[in-house]
Amino acid sequence: MKPQATESSPLLASRSATDHSVDDSQLLTTTRCRASVVMPLVVFTYFLGYYTLVCVLNPYLYDVVAEEMDYKHNSSSQKPCAERDRNHTNTTGNKVVIQEMIQKKVATTELYLSLPCYVCAAISILTVGPLTDKYGRKVGFLFPIVGTFIKQIVYAAVVGLHLPPLILIVGHMFESFGGSFAAMLTSMFTVVSDITNPGRQRSFRITVMEAMQTLTGAAGGYVIGQWIKVSYFQPVIFSAACGVVSLLIAIFLLPETIQKRRLVAPVTVTYPRLWLRIRACTYKVLPSCWQKFKRTFSLFVSDHCQRHNLDKRRLCLAVFILTVAVNFSTPGVQTLYLMKWPRCWPATRILTFGSIQILCNWVAILLLMALMQKVFKLADRQIAMFGVISSITHAVFMSLASNDVMIYEVAVVGVMIRAIIPMLRSVMSLFVLYKHTHTLISIMLNTHRKLSLRYVRFF
């Protein structure tokens, strides 16, 4: 009988021959070393380019909307409170606040850019999993890299040619077809589980990789915050260059960590045979994707063997939904909140503050986690509880912050917020089989993406 998993068990269970087509002993040491070095380079360059567009989008839309509404002399991303009199009388005679008009239009535009991508991104993430299991891990990296690169090209065209902002939806759609950052994170965690042994080494490597992609975004936010004072077009071109570098590294340097099949027939075959091979591959992949799609819901609907684990999965998912819906939509809401009177922070200052906050938070989280786990012997669920308490306190005090000192104090209070997701992932992974871990990660990343954007709409 398989031993019951406990909270001190490895984050990802050991693989068996039935779980993968290749055993750990068959993975060469050189392949492990190459993957350990090359994969962080792929992740770094991808997320550097990805977060560059994230940092550019909000202030760019703010300036475009202000110019369209002929309010740029009243408010801009760098001078949101440029004029003492912030009231404006519209044609109906009703007084409205200029900043609120601009911010509402910006939030609505961001929603329109993201809303059509929900279903596409969800399907793509669930499809990439079976593809990587059959045809190698590179496929899981190439899908999001290519999708995001097309988005970067669309951004460059819109910003450089001064096209309407809603055209950006084309880039967002292509990115969603590739799975976006969620597919990249899923592939990253999968490769980490391939090249590391079960236990603390694997758990620590997963935490470090997640921290690295977050800190990459923080570093990019700091640089882009200074750069957008000069131009929006140059950072977008830089983002596209990062996409090219990430694509080249993934194609030519990233090694395969599992045995793979050919995705298509060799080029030397005739056209009819090539077409038959592609069709056969499609028929093999689609049933696997459909089974994975059904498995996504079955994890939280039925559990014929262990009813107690089903209740725990549902409870963890409920906590995850409630925390993500608020905490991880905060950057977009906080940007508009800090630009609003009486705070009147420029976009550059907001991005710089957010970058420093993320850096300090992750340093504190890694230190506190080591202290809590090794000295106080706290379980993952107890660390997650600290994160939830930190998020509640942060939300309450942020709503009351009216000056700079209070905003800095709120940042200290929310230091443990970003520890919630890795801890909940660790806890939930104990209640599923290893073969369901990829599905579990996909569910959490999809929930993260959707709830964050929907919460911004309510603001």
Would you write up a description of this structure?
This protein has a two-stranded antiparallel ribbon with strand order 1-2. A hairpin with a 5-residue loop joins strand 1 and strand 2 (95-97). With 459 residues, it is an all-alpha fold. The protein has helices at residues 29-68, 98-114, 117-135, 137-161, 168-178, 180-195, 200-227, 233-252, 271-301, 307-327, 330-339, 347-374, 380-400, 404-413, 420-429, 437-458; strands spanning 87-89, 95-97. The N and C termini lie far apart (51 Å). Helix 1 (29-68) packs antiparallel against helix 8 (233-252), helix 3 (117-135) packs parallel to helix 5 and helix 13 (380-400) runs antiparallel to helix 15 (420-429). It has a single domain (24-82, 92-261, 288-293, 305-458), classed as Growth Hormone, Chain: A (Up-down Bundle), CATH 1.20.1250.20. It is globular and about 60 Å long.
